[in-house]
């Protein structure tokens, strides 16, 4: 039964914190 | 290169494998460079969301938490980035609103959480995430969806706003009602000048366009309802505010025109099967103002009738309309000061804000009711136009 599986909770950053991890750094810098 | 041996569909598990170094390419091709008006028109609604979710499923399947986190962060940041860049384009915003919601629904539907599995097939249950609980990421995506919704509303307002006063108040479609124009009305001149003005038809056409774009993008019906309610609120609020500020809009014949226009908007709702979305109710203050322009305003009985009829208008608004009311034809009369006093006395005990104008910036809170999909992930085929040939169906 899939629902009885124990899954590891992945802690998520907030939307704002996520923005700071800019994955497009190279492209965005002038 | 290994030879790609086609597999039978039943052998697929509804996952897409990708190399870590291809993650940026994935979000670039699927989010940043995807043109909703070009390639995306022929896709099944929500396909980018399903593809991204199938990639996520694979990262979960191989139990790579870093890969899962990294993909989710890239997806969210890419959606934010495209909306920053093209946030004034209704199609782009609508496209990403529906895809973000679909991605969120997938995260729920395949979470393994019983409350979201009620409508799943047994195959869909087999496809639930196996290693990670992404409840916190669901919250982040829900926050993102709210941001996108608000952007969609702003975008839609920018398009509708310039049409409202012209289409709802100024333009007259009922011929021969007004006869003599009230004093102060700007004279509408030649037909050439009219070509630049918006009519109710322009508004209806625009509503059709918004509606068909959202349907094309597979937007959840419950979400479309909320957008339409917000559209109607804006139309009603902007129209009423202008009526409250313009003497030339406060006549018996304008009341007639407004009621006709409102009936056309209601007809539109009926036509789109949206009568129960609460949109019509948002027009109630405007409907009452239009009625107020048309009822008799003389005796105590008239005053009583007005007070019970105008329960969606504030005292300030009722008094303002009565003050602005301008007779156009011989059979109409200005409202007496005494009559207005009577109304004010009758409404004295109402508990309400003294605000005259409606808040045109108000946005109703949005919700995204869970809407599971019957689509079987293992049957999804990815068209080459998406440029994600580096993904492997698993």
Could you explain how this protein is built, in words?
The complex is a heterodimer of chains A (30) and B (394). With 30 residues, chain A is mainly alpha-helical. Chain A has helices spanning 15-20, 25-28; one strand at 8-9. The longest helix of chain A is centred in the middle third of the chain and has 6 residues, at 15-20. Chain A starts with 7 loop residues before the first strand and ends with a helix. Chain B is 56% helix and 2% strand. Chain B contains 15 helices and three strands. In chain B, strands 1-3 form a two-stranded antiparallel sheet. At the A-B interface, β1 and α1 of A face α3, β2 and α6 of B. β1 of chain A pairs parallel with β2 of chain B.
Helix and strand topology:
The complex is a heterodimer of chains A (30) and B (394).
Chain A: E1 8-9, H1 15-20, H2 25-28
Chain B: E1 16-17, H1 23-32, H2 47-61, H3 65-86, H4 90-109, H5 122-126, E2 132-133, H6 135-170, H7 191-195, H8 200-216, H9 221-245, H10 252-271, H11 279-282, H12 284-294, H13 300-309, H14 315-324, H15 337-346, E3 392-393
Antiparallel strand pairs in B: 1-3
Helix pairs in contact in B: 1-3, 2-3, 2-4, 3-4, 3-6, 4-6, 6-8, 6-9, 8-9, 9-12, 10-12, 13-15, 14-15
